[in-house]
Amino acid sequence: MRKKIVAGNWKMNLQLDEAKQLLQEIKALGKNVSDVNLIINPPALYISLFKELLENSVIALGAQNCSEHESGAYTGEIAAQMIKSCGANYVIVGHSERRSYYHETNAIIAEKINRALAANLSPIFCCGELLSEREENNHFKVVEQQLKEGLFHLNEKDIKNVVIAYEPVWAIGTGVTATAEQAQEMHAFIRKVLKDFYTEATAQNCSILYGGSCNASNAKELFSNPDIDGGLIGGASLKAADFLTIAQSF
Are the CB atoms for 26 and 4 separated by under 8 Å? Predict the structure, then answer.
């Protein structure tokens, strides 16, 4: 059975006291969630403290990014091994904001995947198309290329530790959401690409999440589709009640 996952990407939000308050609210409400893996991806500064605050909780921690380098003179960067040593088990790799604002290529993202796996972190690999690419009917081609160049250097064993998140760039932070039909179509396509490159079993066991203005109002419709295994949640993860409503939408 594939894991049902709801992961909150807090991005660059919340001062420490605000972040602690939100975490405690999610921790309390999270006791009402079963059969869903909850992951919180706060700013990296907070991971060590959150690990302590989440003692005896099933909520997992992740980082929002890691360096493509193992260590060295890379001022301001954070290595995957550092993230792991602070108590996280996941790391988001290849988010569209990293691709766009920081010009991360598929080659750089592939190296980040390697560093994450070497540190025993599970990468949440993001892929998705621009609005212009969808309008030109190139969305399948773009996502397939991102998968092949970012992930498909991995062997069968390593790919099983990767979570994939489809995030149409035109729907991130815009309030616009892909229709349930559009989301399902792409998720099914991603699973087929996985099957064609690896095996049917690998494709069927991979959790594929939807990211792109998923919220408490539309999560149920999205998650009802057979190839959508949960969500990578942005703004709605900053409200405990909304985040938990999404987690209860399966």
Answer: no
187 is a catalytic site residue = no
Q: How many alpha carbons lie under 13 Å from residue 33 in its C-beta half-sphere?
A: 26
Write out the residue range of the structural domain in which residue 30 sits.
5-247
- How many residues in the chain? 250
For residue range 228-240, list pLDDT tens digits in order.
999 999 999 999 9
From 104, 133, 167, 187, active-site residue: 167
Whole-angstrom distance, CA of residue 60 vs CA of residue 122: 11
Q: Check 68, 95, 111, 139 and give the catalytic one.
A: 95
221 is annotated as an active-site residue = no
Q: Any idea what the CATH number is for the domain that residue 140 is in? A: 3.20.20.70
pLDDT at residue 177 greater than cutoff 80:
no
